[in-house]
Amino acid sequence: MRVVSGIQPTGNLHLGNYLGAIKNWVKMQDRCECLFFLADLHAISMPHNPAELSASTREMAAALIAAGVDPEKSILFNQARVPAHAELQWLLNGTARMGWLNRMIQFKDKSGKNREGASIALFAYPVLQAADVLLYKATHVPVGEDQKQHLELARDIAAKFNADYDTDLFPLPELYITGSATRVMSLRDGRAKMSKSDPSDASRINLTDEDDMVAQKIRKAKSDADVLPSELDGLDGRAEARNLINIYAAVADVEPQAVLAEYAGQGFGAFKPALAELLVESLRPIRERFVALKDDVAATDALLAKGGEKAAALAQPTLDEVYRTLGLLR
Ligand code: TRP
């Protein structure tokens, strides 16, 4: 099993980022060969501030390490340090079809009404993502539900390339959808995703929040006056209650059903303090490591550079094969 996954380098990390991807990565690195990277090349597909991009790439790297991604076990790097990603993308641009990309939901969402003004990079974003995984002949790609379509596109590109050039160069990567509790919602509105851009800071738990702040945000989180049900369908129509149960389950590494089994019949007056304590205890060591590492630019850069070298070495044979297959002389 070779696992490859990327994450967009956003600043202001919160619980949603941690439970959405990072925690799963940490679990996987003991079981498989893993390559994890910061998708900084993808970040230029939208208008961006260069200084902020460098800062959030480093910040995200520090957060990943603080959360337990171990550069000794996994290969951790930022895309821009491995030019093979961009090279393979160009080579795959010959295989990807306009029609396929035209159907991508994320492009439609992000370009909105301004399709004509969207960047070529935004349109070709899924091709770079395909290159990210095919470059390492990934067998499994852990992503959330929202990236399913991009993964299917990577498979389509791989299959067409193999068929067009009569080769079996690319294995088709399997989608590895990670847990149901990974969609962490706002603490103020159970129907909106927890997001760094929500104007209300009370809507999210930041990785830098101190213990008291974490506990206070849970205490003030929106919930309801009913007791907790014993079965999951008892949470239907109770988005905030469901979110808090899901958060507990994800942090404790148990199924939401198991959380209900323990708290059925109790109200939020009992459940919230338990959740607050669990979160405070689990996030504290991560925050402490994160705070210690986040301003150590030299250390983070050195780790990313080392990861980049390892990744580049794995990528080179695939890239060479692709050039050769396409008849490109080098
Ligand atoms: N597009 C992914 C996201 O926004 C990030 C990403 C880039 C990715 N390249 C990847 C994920 C390759 C998995 C594999 O979440």
Portion of residues in beta strands equals 5-15%
The secondary structure category is mainly alpha
Helix content: 40-55%
Give the overall shape, derived from the CA principal axes.
globular
Write down the overall mean pLDDT.
95
What is the makeup of the main sheet?
Answer: 3 strands, parallel
Q: How many angstroms separate the termini? A: 31 Å
Order of helices and strands: EHEHHEHHHHEHEHHHHH
Structure notes:
There is one protein chain. The longest helix has 29 residues, at about 295-325. This protein has helices at about 15-30, 40-45, 50-65, 85-95, 100, 105-110, 120-135, 150-165, 210-220, 240-250, 255-265, 270-295, 295-325, and strands spanning about 1-5, 35-40, 75-80, 140-145, 175. With about 325 residues, the chain is mainly alpha-helical. The protein contains 13 helices and five strands. The structure holds tryptophan (TRP). Tryptophan binds near residues 4, 6, 42 and 132.
